[in-house]
Design goal:
alpha/beta; Spore Coat Polysaccharide Biosynthesis Protein SpsA, Chain A
């Protein structure tokens, strides 16, 4: 029997943060009445992340994919989502910046028949969203300008496409994720663009987000997302995506 919830965690050299994140996720999952699993995908790491993950495999089932080649977050998330077996498949960041407890806010959305539910750090998406520790000024400006561009080009109506806490039904996962090409941070945009293309029912919950200044996102990654968004738009125009 498949678990109800799969929690997918992409990880690249996360030995300093993965232990606390797994402890918190296991604490949450053990308190639930539904069956669950954790899928950790290591993106060509060179530290002791795998050893730490294996220490947590006793209480809640953990599927570890320890890929030795670094391919990027998008590739890693895609690999984990397609390896997961849950009726609902949630991917979340290894730093637990959006706490696993946000899944409680998503439960009503699933009960009402949503196919995709995401968290947003922007109150224009969902009232009550806030950032406990704001990002740097440069990241905020680049993020805001970039989002306006992303809305205009590929994903209208969503103010925060990049929050790393998104859940998909098994059906929408199996339709969307095999088609995704983005290996980097553009995966979020591409997944949401296909969510809209296939008219999946989408809901947005507010994120109470805590920034970690050890984030691996670099300014150049914002530029790559914008360029990748243009490619997504071109793919949509030419009918490239086919379920």
């Amino acid at each position: 029997m498949n678990p109800y919830l799969s929690v997918v965690i992409p990880a690249y050299n996360e030995e300093e943060r993965i232990g606390a994140t797994l402890a918190r996720i296991q604490e949450y999952l053990l308190a639930q009445s539904f069956e669950s699993e954790i899928v950790v995908v290591i993106d060509g790491g060179t530290d002791d992340t795998a050893e730490i993950v294996n220490q947590f495999a006793a209480e809640v089932p953990i599927k570890l994919i320890d890929r030795k080649e670094n391919r990027g977050k998008g590739y890693t998330v895609r690999e984990g989502m397609l390896a997961a077996t849950g009726d609902v498949r949630l991917f979340t960041d290894a730093d637990n910046a959006t706490d696993i407890g946000h899944f409680d806010l998503m439960k009503g959305s699933w009960e009402s028949g949503c196919d995709v539910v995401i968290a947003s750090r922007d109150s224009k998406d969902s009232e009550g969203a806030w950032q406990a520790v704001p990002q740097s000024f440069v990241k905020r400006v680049m993020g805001n300008l970039g989002n306006l561009f992303i809305q205009f080009v590929a994903v209208p109506g969503i103010w925060d496409t990049q929050c790393g806490f998104k859940a998909f039904s098994a059906e929408s996962t199996n339709k969307i994720f095999p088609q995704l090409e983005a290996d980097g941070y553009t995966l979020d945009v591409e997944a949401l663009a296909l969510t809209k293309k296939y008219n999946y029912k989408l809901d947005i919950v507010p994120a109470h987000w805590v920034n970690d200044d050890r984030s691996k996102v670099k300014p150049i990654d914002y530029v790559k997302v914008l360029l990748g968004t243009l490619k997504i738009r071109w793919n949509l125009i030419r009918g490239y995506y086919k379920a």
